[in-house]
Specification:
Elements (H helix, E strand, L loop, with lengths): L2 E4 L2 E8 L5 E5 L10 H7 L4 E5 L8 E2 L9 H12 L5 E6 L2 H11 L4 E7 L8 H13 L15 H4 L1 H11 L12 H12 L12 E6 L7 H10 L4 E5 L6 H4 L1 H15 L2
Parallel strand pairs: 3-4, 3-6, 6-7, 7-8, 8-9
Antiparallel strand pairs: 1-2, 2-4, 2-5
């Protein structure tokens, strides 16, 4: 099995496709590289697709203690590109993976041909992010659970086999190093609530923000406000979908990606 040796980690990855621009997918928290199967199947004929497991997920082996609010994610993405000798790529992050994508695009824009933020605003510190983090800090101690909001409320009833498949995929992950709803976990939201907003007027990388209209995690108003804060950013809306848009509505989601990717291939 292929692994990229990074600082304190052996990052598991897979490559599908042998022609066209590079397209790298970064999964969300509690997921792993398998979540992108519908996208890899759709794009591997025209793009060289890379999927990988983030630290403390899937088959990746990592040492040390996790820092979900730090620089590990985007530095790992950059390290993977270096290991694979990828000079420039499209990068697509879902949920937690958005922090890897935004961090790479903001710190090393020359390495990013286009950035896709799928149901995520992580890495963009705005007034909207402050408000959202405050709402999460209020809801989580009252019983709001991330895993209960991964998909639209009717997804399990509408697509029981697909829902089972993707929930089973998540069980390939090792136990969380920071238990959800612990003090250490909530510190992540506290940092986003208290950090001052930044100005993104100088961003040069093309961005696409994909918004799921039934998302109860990275809620629509947050994604829309963040897209408005990034000059030239495009916004795509996926109807009848919760947070897991690439699973729930793959055809509509893939079409939004294809339009953006094709516009910036040249």
């Amino acid at each position: 099995m292929p692994f990229a040796t990074l600082d304190g980690a052996e990052l598991y990855y897979e490559i599908e496709g042998d022609t066209g621009p590079w397209l790298i997918f970064a999964h969300g928290g509690g997921s792993n590289h398998l979540v992108w199967w519908k996208q890899v199947g759709a794009f591997r004929d025209r793009y060289r697709c890379v999927v990988y497991d983030a630290r403390w997920h899937g088959l990746t082996r990592a040492t040390g203690s996790p820092d979900e609010a730090g620089d590990t994610a985007w530095r790992d993405l950059l390290g993977l590109m270096d290991a694979l000798k990828i000079d420039r790529a499209f990068v697509n992050g879902h949920s937690m993976g958005g922090g890897a994508v935004s961090g790479l695009a903001l710190n090393h824009p020359a390495r990013v041909q286009g950035a896709i933020m799928s149901g995520t605003t992580f890495g963009f510190q705005t007034a909207a992010m402050q408000r959202w983090a405050g709402e999460m800090l209020d809801k989580i101690p009252k019983g709001f659970r991330i895993e209960d909001n991964t998909y639209a409320p009717d997804f399990a009833a509408r697509e029981p086999a697909l829902h089972y498949l993707h929930m089973a995929m998540r069980r390939f992950n090792p136990p969380r190093p920071i238990p959800r709803y612990s003090k250490g976990y909530l510190a992540y939201y506290e940092a986003m609530q208290t950090a001052p907003p930044r100005d993104y007027a100088g961003v040069k990388v093309p961005f696409l923000f994909v918004l799921a209209e039934q998302d109860t995690l990275q809620v629509p108003w947050l994604v829309e406000a963040t897209a408005q804060a990034v000059p030239g950013a495009k916004l795509a809306r996926i109807a009848n979908s919760g947070h897991g848009m690439q699973v729930e509505q793959p055809e509509a989601y893939n079409a939004a990606l294809a339009e953006f990717l094709d516009a910036h291939r040249g």
